[in-house]
Amino acid sequence: MSERMTYHQIEERFAGEWVVVRDFVRDDARIIKEGVVVTHTPDRAAAHRALDTFDDAFAIWFVGGPNPDFCGILSLPR
Prior knowledge:
- The chain has two helices and five strands.
- The model has no long low-confidence stretch (mean pLDDT 85).
- β2 and β3 (32-41) form a beta hairpin.
- The longest helix has 8 residues, at 44-51.
- By secondary structure, it is α+β, with helices and mostly antiparallel strands.
- The protein has helices spanning 7-13, 44-51, and strands spanning 3-6, 18-26, 32-41, 58-62, 74-76.
């Protein structure tokens, strides 16, 4: 999967899943507005394993209600 989507589209389509996005656009507050979804899975470990394949920036977050294992969006330059 490599589809450019808005944050809102991602939140609607992948409820209950971990989402990894690359080539993303942020607003002035550094909030993700859109990006290319490269991985989505309900399995946290699988999402984190996918991160090892990237050499550049990515964003990862859980779509849905509070998750006891993770909170917020992580955006790291590589």
